[in-house]
């Protein structure tokens, strides 16, 4: 019984620490009109000082649009440095990073774009788990200037 209580305490401590670490990157999401019936999903990451952001993955659900190209960083400085944990050169972002994905809207009324961003942030001592940060847009969120 005593062992179970100790394990429960350790589990609560570890998981609460993981959730506290997840706040080191704050995400914001928006859609912008790029003309010709195209929009861009813009994902901005504000990264706390002393932390850096590694890999970014975006699983998504799309209706009424099709992806053009891939999810990529824009106006963001990719820093490449040797990481002793990985024992190789890796790329990461510090301070801020912006990522975009372009879409061609095919049906404004049926438009749905939802998913989540999963990214890992680290400092010199620890890393956050790549917990999902969700986003969701529907036809009412499309830029009013969009013409299809």
Task: Name some characteristics of this structure.
6-stranded antiparallel beta sheet, 10 strands, 148 residues, 1 helix, disordered N terminus, 4-stranded antiparallel beta sheet, mainly beta
Q: Give the N-terminus to C-terminus distance in angstroms.
A: 65 Å
Radius of gyration based on Cα positions: 19 Å
| Biggest beta-sheet profile | 6 strands, antiparallel
Helix content: 10-25%
What is the number of beta strands? 10
As residue ranges, the low-confidence spans are 1-21
Average pLDDT level: 85
Q: What share of residues are in beta strands?
A: over 45%
Structural class: mainly beta
SS field, number of helical segments: 1
Globally, the shape reads: elongated
Order of helices and strands: HEEEEEEEEEE
Quick rundown:
The protein has 148 residues and is mainly beta.
Describe the protein:
The protein is mainly β. It contains one helix and ten strands; from the N terminus they run αββββββββββ. The strands form two sheets. Strands 3, 4, 6, 7, 9 and 10 form a six-stranded antiparallel β-sheet that branches. The chain has a four-stranded antiparallel β-sheet with strand order 1-2-8-5, with no helix packed on it. Strand 6 and strand 7 form a beta hairpin. It is elongated and about 50 Å long. The protein starts with a helix and ends in a 10-residue tail after the last strand. The N terminus is likely disordered.
Topology (elements, then pairings):
Elements: H1 2-21, E1 25-35, E2 38-47, E3 52-57, E4 60-63, E5 65-74, E6 79-83, E7 88-94, E8 96-105, E9 112-122, E10 132-138
Antiparallel strand pairs: 1-2, 2-8, 3-7, 3-9, 4-9, 5-8, 6-7, 9-10
